[in-house]
């Protein structure tokens, strides 16, 4: 029993305390404030909104853990979506078959990964700051996308891709399932693979890691490539949900992904942070906005509350740190 | 325990502390310590890390308030405790190890900013600050361009700027915390000259240093602390290094030569005419199984660069490296590690270990293949591997998951050694393995090194402390300006012979 407890604790990690507490607080507050909160409808709205932001947050997480940042995530997702749309369009549009869709996804992920690969190579070899590199990539992708679409929407996809955005299996929304699978893959990657191990090491001290015989450039390139590939998955889900692709879709998520990482206990300077607490943090953010919606608050107010929440988390974290420090001094 | 030397004819002390007690969270940092400084003397404060030296300095300068019962007599006045303001006003200055300077500001601003703080008029006259700075530097017999930003100057000059700043405050008593830790020998000599000048001008200097040779060279007297208690006060004349070490640690170390004859063992590393112009030139030597080859020389002699080229991180321009007879050419340190070469960096804090990460992760980072099964890392294997090395090297840790930065210097170094032993090397290069390690813990590190050599590992021991290579290596190379200028066998020469060559 004790071993099981320890295993669970090791699985969740110490970063879990903050998001776990926030989750509890949000659930308790809104169930008291609104009787409809603990209902299928709330679950449904959270389950369908969570994946887009969630997949983009996973794409942001890896670079943040290395001490970097990927500001190009939303436009990488758009460009990957455009790629998929282009493959579908050139294979019959509404009449495109499942094989065309499969190829479309593959190519989209390839394009997303390529965008990450280029950023990774530039960051690893020129040692330019990831913010500048990914910002340049973001501007490039936005410009390219707007040029290709002339600022409009691309739509007209076969009907069978819609379940990817709206359907359910055994009562679980398909996008949520895809997101959960991606969360588990990221969790496995970070806790069980050399790449994950080295991601944390690099995030704390890249030179010391290099002196230990780790190919740090390879790690950086892989991290940004995987980040790009994850953006592509987000792009495909967005395409299925909106039944269209438009450059600029999801743009407002960009900074929220950074904050979700932070709320999930990720060190903004890299080296520390785990996937599962970030997942919980995302659920908290989504529950918060659904709950506020339910009690009749304005949508913009919900965004404001997110900001307040994150500031509160920072203050709480500082106080907790002080408390620990004082306890240690008292011995 | 306290053995005081008698001082019948000594003048009245400038500073006299009696009955200092200080504790943090129930842990006693200073126990009933007394401390005297005479006017104009150079007084060394000696002790291992954690012996209470910094706490003592912080009490004198008013950073800490000691427990009641303390008497501080300074320059004819008695204080129950100091405050930073009263200490400064009374002419007590400290030069901390990190110097606490402003790299972006000019030399003049760094030296004179204290004089313009809070004084009226509120406008800052740069010309006035300049004059103050030039005058302070002149007192030290140094000329620097006071209009340049401080960051343009190397650490040795910054040190001088910090001293000049202390002098601006009309200092009578200056504390220097490890002022020579990052200086080369000639810079150190220059600094010691400055200290002598200060002393001659009537300024008392309290000097904290781990380098005992320097301590004996510069001080009139020394006060030794151990575990927060006073061991004694001694005149520097007649004192020898090994005696200070004994006083500081409470242990006796037998300084026996380790050197053995291993010329019958097979050669592990053979370096021929290795050159990289500007860094090192025409280097040839061999290291055998079970042999410890010492490399010494001043900072900047090319020792670390040579080591990095053996480790594949710096490409030599010409010459050959043979490992067990086979010529090797490394394109990165990964090749070197795979071939059985390990390199312990001289800079443990920023290159040797990933300080914020865990003990366990630091130990396995260079040998992840060993804890991989079926393509995934295994926590159980990691724990086992780490526990094995922790026991093997007698490392004292809390939990494996604690950050490596929570360990003492000696235990950190053992983790770093364990990290490399886990890669199963044939050749272990140890670059300054005792930097930042307490005198007491150094003996432990050398015990490990001796054991490793006995088990057949070929070891290159790089150190700028000549006694370390003299006592612990089988042969010693002396490098200067990128070349091997002397080869010594400790069994056929004296420590003085090597020291004379290195410091000539």
TrEMBL record, chain A:
Keywords on record: Cell inner membrane, Cell membrane, Membrane, Transmembrane, Transmembrane helix, Transport
Gene Ontology cellular component list: plasma membrane
UniProt keyword Transmembrane present: yes
Membrane disposition: Multi-pass membrane protein
Residue ranges crossing the lipid bilayer per the database entry: 20-43, 55-88, 100-124, 131-149, 169-190, 221-240, 252-269, 276-295, 301-320
UniProt xrefs under CDD domains: TM_PBP1_transp_AraH_like (cd06579)
GO molecular function list: transmembrane transporter activity
Localization, UniProt: Cell membrane
Keyword Cell membrane: yes
InterPro entries attached to this UniProt entry: ABC_transp_permease
Coiled-coil regions listed: none
Protein name (database record): ABC transporter permease
Native species: Phyllobacterium salinisoli
Lineage: Bacteria, Pseudomonadati, Pseudomonadota, Alphaproteobacteria, Hyphomicrobiales
From TrEMBL, chain B:
Classification via InterPro entries: AAA+_ATPase, ABC_carbohydrate_import_ATPase, ABC_transporter-like_ATP-bd, ABC_transporter-like_CS, P-loop_NTPase
PANTHER family per UniProt: CARBOHYDRATE TRANSPORT ATP-BINDING PROTEIN MG119-RELATED (PTHR43790), XYLOSE IMPORT ATP-BINDING PROTEIN XYLG (PTHR43790:SF1)
A matching Pfam family: ABC_tran
Keyword Signal: no
Family per record: Belongs to the ABC transporter superfamily.
Entry keyword set: ATP-binding, Cell membrane, Membrane, Nucleotide-binding, Repeat, Sugar transport, Translocase, Transport
Lineage summary: Bacteria, Pseudomonadati, Pseudomonadota, Alphaproteobacteria, Hyphomicrobiales
ABC transporter domain: residues covered: 15-252, 257-504
UniProt-recorded name of the protein: Sugar ABC transporter ATP-binding protein
GO function terms (MF aspect): ATP binding; ATP hydrolysis activity
Entries under SMART domains matching the protein: AAA
Organism: Phyllobacterium salinisoli
